[in-house]
């Protein structure tokens, strides 16, 4: 079985077309392996497409992760600066009261 062909597979259009043509030319022999070579080529194309898509998704995820980590660090720095300012203000008030 191959994946559904209704989803766009831009990298594998030639293989999909060849398989569909083979199925039309061999309506009964397709069940006995007449289109096996074409099907194998389509399977390899789908595997290569999957590897490419997985790699692209991984790169996007790394970029997104770096962005989120940067924003989290900026927030931590901002909160630490605010807490330090509050502590200094509290210390100066305590010194002024004495």
TrEMBL record:
Compositional bias per record (Basic and acidic residues), positions renumbered to this chain: 74-91
Subcellular localization: Mitochondrion
Keyword Disulfide bond: yes
Start and end residues of each stretch annotated as Disordered: 74-98
GO cellular component, one term: mitochondrion
Keyword Glycosyltransferase annotated: no
Keywords associated with the record: Disulfide bond, Mitochondrion
InterPro entries per record: Cyt_c_biogenesis_Cmc1-like
Protein family according to the UniProt entry: Belongs to the CMC family.
Annotated protein name in UniProt: COX assembly mitochondrial protein
Organism: Phytophthora sojae (strain P6497)
Source organism phylogeny: Eukaryota, Sar, Stramenopiles, Oomycota, Peronosporomycetes
């Amino acid at each position: 079985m191959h994946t559904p062909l209704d989803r766009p597979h831009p990298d594998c259009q030639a293989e999909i077309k060849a398989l569909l043509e083979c199925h039309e030319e061999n309506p009964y022999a397709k069940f006995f392996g007449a289109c096996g070579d074409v099907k194998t080529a389509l399977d390899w194309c789908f595997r290569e497409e999957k590897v490419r898509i997985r790699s692209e998704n991984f790169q996007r995820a790394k970029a997104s992760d770096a962005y989120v980590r940067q924003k989290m660090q900026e927030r931590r720095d901002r909160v630490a600066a605010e807490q330090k300012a509050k502590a200094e203000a509290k210390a100066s008030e305590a010194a002024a009261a004495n």
